[in-house]
Amino acid sequence: MIQDSDIIEQFDRDGAAVLRQAVSADWVEKLRAAAEEAFAHPSQFGRSHTPEGAAGGEFRVDRFIWLDHPVFRDFVLEGGLAALAAKVLGSERINFFYDHLFVKEPGSVEATPWHNDLPYWPIRGSQICSFWLALDQVSERSGGLRYVRGSHKWNTLFQPVAASDKDRHEWEGSTFQPLPDIDGNPDAYELLSWDLEPGDILIHHGLTVHGAFGNSTVDRRRRGLATRWTGDDVIYDPRPGTMGLPVDPGLVAGQPLDSALFPRMIGPAPVAG
Fold this sequence. Notes:
The protein has four helices and 14 strands. It is α+β, with helices and mostly antiparallel strands.
């Protein structure tokens, strides 16, 4: 799937890259329809980050959709992204971590605050990446992701920032340092962003600082599906202030992420304990 080593080099150097037309139009259409079904029947993690009664469009999210929706499960298992993750991470083993669905409707004002992902997650390691698949045309105005170039090399876990009061409780107990004031010091940071077409994928590291504006367009939805992938050095780390899981993965701290919840996609079959 990767035809140009420059993409891997950019990921390693900058912490983020774009892969054009990585997913077929057929998959995009299937996932669009499945996304509407998923938002109509959300999981325990489905929520709106838009205050009740607020004017404008809605910002909604859900995660671990693949467990209940066949199209998402088929995409995870058969869509070819595990092989892409192995190349990007330079890893012999790849586990699927989870999927995360986002939609910012036209006129939704809620920004995605600056953050890096790893502090939110009950895992530890360096071989971690996300693939953010555009299901619509995306621009900075419609809520496209922005990245702080090279921030993954800071090797710093920052205090989780709640997208709204509805998920603030999940991050209680986290004690990492606060993020620097990126917006207040624009000359100190180089930002990366890309306009996207459906089927394009943004690739970013688990430590890359990123965020997004709200969707200020009047007629363009911003639907995205993020899938998260882990490599050889990643272990389970259920510390306080990390996201809840749908089921107990049956792991103890320090174990590799081999479980039914985090299936091994590439590499030798895990040894039964």
